[in-house]
């Protein structure tokens, strides 16, 4: 039950006994990530009928933060508090002209670059993911050997440049 008195109440999440028990368990568990603990505390304080300003004071979080997690709880329940939404990578993709310059430099150094345009080369890549084929050429431009290229470690962000660095680490 939401009773904000004379103040405007735009969010009124209903917390069931089961949800309250889960939220209290998250707060009580010493192994819970702190971000889950304060999200659960926001919802417990909301369920207790405290206003946004009091919740902000007790949790040391901003008004928009309190509102965001109240809204997420109403949309997805306790599970929504325990996961972060996916976001765009903060590292932008390489522009087409930059990618072409990287390929040109690799080719000029005697490396053959294959599979550059395939979306599978864009991050994220799992460790051991096949990202192409290394072709070794002799001075006359004839192929003398080839080998599959795989990532040595997971690549969470990045693009062609990150993949090329990973490929080069195979040979260093």
Short characterization:
The protein is mainly alpha-helical.
What does this structure look like?
With 172 residues, the protein is mostly helical. The chain folds into two domains: 17-81; 96-169, no CATH class. It has helices at 17-28, 34-47, 52-59, 63-81, 96-108, 160-169; strands at 111-112, 130-137, 143-150. Strands 1-2-3 form a three-stranded antiparallel sheet. A hairpin with a 5-residue loop joins strand 2 (130-137) and strand 3 (143-150). Helix 1 (17-28) runs antiparallel to helix 2 (34-47) and helix 2 packs across helix 4. The protein is elongated, with a radius of gyration of 26 Å. The N and C termini lie far apart (65 Å). Mean pLDDT is 77; it is low at 116-120.
Order of helices and strands: HHHHHEEEH
Radius of gyration: 26 Å
Counted by DSSP, the helix tally is: 6
Q: Determine the fraction of residues in helical runs and give it as a percent range.
A: 40-55%
What descriptors fit this protein?
single chain, 172 residues, mainly alpha, 2 domains, three-stranded antiparallel beta sheet, 3 strands, 44% helix, elongated
